[in-house]
Amino acid sequence: xxxxxxxxxxxxxxxRQAYFNIIGDRIHGARFLDLFAGSGIFSFEALxxxxxxxxxxxxxxxxxxxxxxxxxxxxxxxxxxxxxxTLPPGDEFDLVYADPPYDFGRYDDLLLGLDGMKLAPEGVxxxxxxxxxxxxxxxxxxxxxxxxxxxGEVWMTFFIGEK
Length: 163
Known about the structure:
26% of the residues lie in helices and 31% in strands.
């Protein structure tokens, strides 16, 4: 799949596979939210692994148009939403993956937005960030730290929603 030109920095295949290994069977029938979607690769992979739906949010209309074209070509449905990924859509989701740009300076806003969104009971939220960083300084109320996964330059911090 061609990657849209511009500021898109796709997550390595190794890190992406690790994410899907960590969430395991939770993907089957899940409502998947892909924040800072970029190329949409996480949305497409979630669907290919059994997610019921995938929603891609990105501030770039060019990226979203490319995702829509690829979804049409693959014969799958990916809902695309233009906007600020720190303000997740109002739908309920089971799994959320957020991949902000490396120079992103609003991790606390992102975490608070995720903490306030409609997440299924025990839903999983993963946020990608640079290695050796702990970008969160706020304490979420509804999300609990679950684990951190480290893959080269990419670290993922996982949170789990309340029951």
